[in-house]
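Re-run requested by the PI after the first attempt was lost when the workstation crashed. Everything re-entered from the original request form. Ligand of interest: flavin-adenine dinucleotide.
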Amino acid sequence: MTSIIWFRDDLRVADHAALLEAAGDPDGVTALYVLDETSPEARPLGGAARWWLHHSLGALRRSLAELGLPLTLRRGPAERVVPEVAREAGAQRVFWNRRYGPERDIDARLKARLRADGIDARSFAGSLLFEPWTIATGEGTAYRVYSAFWRACMREPAPARPLPAPDALAVTPTPVPSDSLEEWGLLDARWAHTLEAHCAPGEKAANDRLDEFLDERVSDYDRARDLPSLPATSGLSPHLRWGEISPRTVWWRALEAAGTGIGDGTGDEVGGFLSELGWREFAWHTLFHRGALESRGLDRRYDAFPWRSEGESAAEPAAWRKGETGFGLVDAGMRELWQTGVMHNRVRMVVASFLTKNLLVDWRVGEAWFWDTLVDADRASNPFNWQWVAGCGVDAAPYFRVFNPVTQQKKFDPDGKYVDRWASDSLLTPPIVDLAETRQRALDAYEQIRGLPRA
Ligand SMILES: Cc1cc2nc3c(=O)[nH]c(=O)nc-3n(C[C@H](O)[C@H](O)[C@H](O)COP(=O)(O)OP(=O)(O)OC[C@H]3O[C@@H](n4cnc5c(N)ncnc54)[C@H](O)[C@@H]3O)c2cc1C
């Protein structure tokens, strides 16, 4: 019997249940990655994400080579490509770790098709701490409030301990041809130019980053995590996004570092950090239960929200994208994003509020920009957080909470270090809007939908 291990958003060899299952196959394994940009459920990757993917696949290829296995790359709709490769390799088994967004429809159809062809197709847990269907309210529905969701997670059995990487893998006797990674053209010069200086994709870099965070920063996390001038947070989001490290690994290593060994993840030294992993879980829980988040607000009143049209507002989102709004914190954040492919969480909230409330621009415009420019953009966390800030998401901030970028800067960047680093010239740019006036305009707009039904 030979197996295919189909990698997706889990570009690692440790704590990889599907890989470990395939590794038990003495007759050989084919490792496969499919670049699927054409299935209707797929969302084509943004430019920064493509850059990261290129390097992450390169790193996975090296790790697999150390285990004796080549990585086969193919491009096209997964439903066509995976059975094709299974035929070419003469495989009787296909394994993968689960996805939880709209792509799971692809996986369900594919599983049925492979099984109809007599192939043992099986999926495993690997990208979340808790499978989304195991967490439900008393009425059996999805949670809408984060604190209740996380309490329910903490009542579950603790996440499983991470699995070891396989020692070695037997290569399938019928090797199948691979595309060339370089010829996929994922490396747009625009992104290569800036990201190389700031990003280190791959499983090894992910583990190094976690170690460094736990050794040097986690004890100060709760105090300093909101200060964008400091490297106070883990910086793990792109590594988690691409599955270069599993959340279970992060969970258990953090608990071990705190010396608690086992625990419920609350109230100890690393509880604040672990509950941020909880927000990631909550975003995926919401996507799993409520369907594609990037296209429509969960609060249906927002279908009728009077966003300003492109004609009315085009110059303002352009200034927002370029970091030329005249508000230091907004400009610094947008330029940090353009240069590094990430932005500090506090600043993400401020720039998102500025776009959706002060500029009254549809949150989907901002979500799409982040999708193209973030190296950690994923189909759960990105639209989930945009909806949260805009007011139409689950457990969303009340609409009248309009972040004031000037007071936010005073509070979270009091010595101006962050703004100086990224947008030292912003004081010279005249502000593109009046904050008080545009805040009032946003509140008036909200009045138009306030009384409508939510569902
Ligand atoms: C408008 C907006 C868009 C966002 N888009 C994304 C996105 O596309 N991908 C993404 O991973 N995060 C997104 N976030 C959440 C958050 O900003 C990043 O996860 C965080 O900045 C990553 O930095 P870190 O790894 O140092 O986080 P840490 O503070 O070290 O947190 C540890 C991990 O917890 C998770 N996490 C923390 N906060 C959140 C959150 N609010 N939502 C979901 N997961 C969280 C991340 O996986 C993160 O790596 C967005 C936030 C906002 C306000």
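Saved to the shared folder this time. Strands lie at 3-7, 29-35, 71-75, 93-97, 120-124.
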